[in-house]
Design goal:
single chain; about 425 residues; alpha/beta; eight-stranded mixed beta barrel; three-stranded antiparallel β-sheet; 14 helices; binds 2-phosphoglycolic acid; binds zinc ion; EC 4.2.1.11; Enolase_N; metal-binding
């Protein structure tokens, strides 16, 4: 039974405020959780409440903290913390908006996750076991974003994320070691060619390349020089974050096009698809996320017809972890995988529903961080709980990213 719920304003990895909630049960067990925050957010995401005004450049979350203290805490007191669905539904009903803009998705999610952690602690279970039961057993393949572009770095490439996937290894610790070896090798190569090796929001390097393909060439070189075979030990994943390109074109009055600002080129959706296909022909690409914009449903279908049989096509901004949009995507055959971000939808229950729908339809679910993160490691447990098989949580650099990898190392030790 919930005795009390506390909330406070803390900082995320970008130095912006975020909400932390602490749920205390009558038995004395506690659960603490904090909320991540995106930079290239989808238009259909649940809304994080920000104070505006002068504190923290308008980014303060005292309003969301107040919502937890004055509305959510009194409402949930006395409820059984293991009744996650009822608790989440109570918050959804109390908020009473489609995008959680009344109480704030940041207020609701902090409590939702802290409730689950408190319940797990109350039962003396690790979170992945509490959420996934005995079936939770698969450690994910990390998608490590080692070159950061787009909105996550000011260099900046058109494509937002260039990721390496250590696919040719049996255990998580071997995947992490191999990925980290490539990361360090990449740094050495970049330094040798006088590129900057400062890192972006997700811990990857942010060199001032002229063309996006250069990033791919450097990845291949780093994989080889680290002693691995591209295609066998490692494959590549991209997050194009094409909604950003679509919006950039729109701002220039070119509706329905994609703007590659670095090269000053506009592409039609058909040219985008041809370009992505060409990249897949030239490089060992396993996965492409948001290859097209969140509004461009019609061309997603065309992209899926062109590449879906050989490449994982992931909807992030397209689906925003929302079952209504995922259902539409499945009906239209628009992709074959869904990026899962807890704060896009705002409760744990709805997140688990989104994962279930995705998997039941034979699509893949990838558990993901945001570009703004905290030391909270819930997504590591979630990835194992649902046997997602893949997790996106940045480069092996910056403690906000590494915390998730370290949590997975500990889980692996417990499970195996
Ligand atoms: P965001 O980006 O967290 O800044 O939204 C991550 C992504 O697009 O996958
Ligand atoms: Zn994305």
């Amino acid at each position: 039974k919930i005795r009390d719920i506390l909330a406070r304003e803390i900082l995320d990895s970008r130095g912006n405020p975020t909400v932390e909630a602490e749920v205390i049960l009558k038995c004395g067990a506690r659960g603490v959780a904090s909320v991540p925050s995106g930079a290239s957010t989808g238009a259909f995401e649940a809304v994080e409440l920000r104070d505006g005004e002068s504190r923290y450049m308008g980014m303060g979350v005292r309003g969301a903290v107040k919502a937890v203290r004055q509305i959510i805490a009194p409402g949930l007191k006395g409820m059984d913390a293991s009744r996650q669905r009822e608790i989440d539904q109570w918050m959804i009903a109390e908020d009473a908006t489609a995008n959680k803009s009344h109480l704030g998705a940041n207020a609701i999610l902090a409590v939702s996750l802290a409730v689950a952690k408190a319940a797990a602690n109350g039962m003396k279970l690790p979170l992945y076991r509490y959420l996934g039961g005995c079936g939770a057993r698969e450690l994910p393949i990390p998608m490590m974003n080692v070159i950061n572009g787009g909105r996550h770095a000011d260099s900046s490439m058109n494509i937002q994320e260039f990721m390496i996937m250590p696919v040719g290894f049996m255990s998580f610790h071997e995947r992490l070691e191999a990925g980290t070896r490539v990361f360090h090798t990449l740094k050495r190569i970049l330094m040798a060619e006088h590129y900057t090796t400062s890192v972006g929001d997700e811990g990857g390097f942010a060199p001032a390349f002229e063309r996006d393909e250069q990033a791919l060439d450097f990845l291949i070189r780093a994989i080889e020089e680290a002693g691995y075979q591209p295609g066998r030990h490692f494959r590549i994943a991209l997050d194009v974050a094409a909604t950003e390109m679509y919006d950039a074109a729109l701002r220039e009055g070119k509706d329905g096009m994609y703007y590659f600002w670095k090269s000053g080129i506009y592409k039609t959706p058909e040219e985008m698809i041809a370009y992505l296909k060409e990249l897949c022909d030239r490089y060992p690409i396993y996965s492409i996320e948001d290859g097209l914009a969140e509004e461009d449903w019609m061309h997603w279908e065309q992209l899926n017809r062109t590449l879906g049989s050989r490449v994982q096509l992931v909807g992030d901004d397209l689906f925003v972890t929302n079952t209504e949009r995922i259902r539409k995507g499945i009906r239209q055959n628009a992709a074959n995988a869904v990026l899962i971000k807890v704060n896009q939808i705002g409760t744990l229950t709805e997140t688990l529903d989104a994962i279930r729908m995705t998997k039941e339809n034979g699509w893949r679910a990838i558990i993901s961080h945001r570009s703004g993160e905290t030391e909270d490691t819930t997504i590591a447990d979630l990835a194992v709980a649902v046997n997602a098989g893949q997790i996106k949580t940045g480069a092996p650099s910056r403690t906000d990213r590494v915390a998730k990898y370290n949590r997975l190392l500990r889980i692996e030790e417990e499970i195996w």
